[in-house]
Write a structure and sequence with these properties.
The protein has about 250 residues and is α/β, with parallel strands linked by helices. Helices cover about 40% and strands about 25% of the residues.
Length: about 250
């Protein structure tokens, strides 16, 4: 489904992503891990169109999207969440999701009315268990519910492929487990392909089928969780000796 070929991005004298290549298959759920500054979020920004690469290509479903804008990639079925939630604080939870529905390709294709967009937004809020909060201003939500709202807004774009950027940040263990179970369920129910950037290894190693590890802007390992936690290069770069016990 997704093909990244020799992608490179520099900021001044710093190479944030260095000649990265990877393949993501349809309906796969892949964890993307690595230490702070390893290039994970920069790679997500390149795939989603928020950054333009200095070199390399991004291919989605056989289409070269390297030069396409972020909104054009959304229309093709690519969505994402953000490490720092990008909600509109002075709008309600429902209004935020309606806004996402309006931005989806099918809104224009089906010539949906605002009332129909509202009904669809309620459907996505129900899925993430935020229906009861639909009239609350987003600025009044705790971080856990903001994470859920980010997922609802991503779903409202009618994606085929979602990149989840550190959905566990700021959550307690129970909340983190709930969000992890939701992400796994969404993959199955909506037939999604998911790339999941995460620091909470306890969660990611149990939830994904494959793990890609980045360090200093490069991919240093790619394999199933069992292999990754025993990879010496990964242990040196990131995980730490205690992870061998998983």
């Amino acid at each position: 489904m997704l093909q990244v070929d020799s992608l490179t991005k520099r900021f001044g004298g710093i190479t944030a992503v260095n000649n990265v290549s990877l393949r993501i298959s349809r309906n796969e759920i892949v964890g993307l891990i690595g230490p702070n500054g390893s290039g994970k979020t920069t790679l997500v920004n390149l795939i989603s169109g928020f950054y333009k690469p200095d070199s390399g290509r991004v291919i989605f479903e056989g289409i070269d999207i390297t030069g396409k804008r972020a909104d054009e990639r959304v229309k093709l079925g690519i969505a994402r969440t953000f490490q720092i939630p990008k909600v509109i604080g002075n709008m309600t939870v429902l209004q935020n999701v309606v806004y996402a529905v309006i931005g989806s390709k099918r809104f224009k294709e089906r010539k949906m009315t605002l009332a129909e967009a509202g009904e669809e937004a309620l459907y996505y809020l129900d899925i993430v268990n935020l229906l009861r909060k639909r009239d609350i201003l987003c600025r009044d939500l705790p971080i856990y519910e903001l994470r859920l709202l980010e997922l609802a807004r991503a779903l409202a774009l009618n994606p085929k492929f979602i990149m989840v950027d550190e959905a566990m940040a700021g959550l307690n263990p129970t909340e983190a487990d709930n969000v992890a179970k939701l992400i796994e369920r969404l993959r199955e129910e909506f037939n999604l392909t998911i790339v999941w950037v995460e620091h909470v290894l306890r969660i990611i190693m149990k939830s994904v089928e494959r793990v890609v590890v980045m360090s200093e802007g490069e991919v240093i390992a790619d394999g199933v969780p069992y292999e990754i936690v025993r990879n010496i290069e990964v242990i040196k770069a990131y995980i730490g000796e205690e992870m061998i016990k998983i």
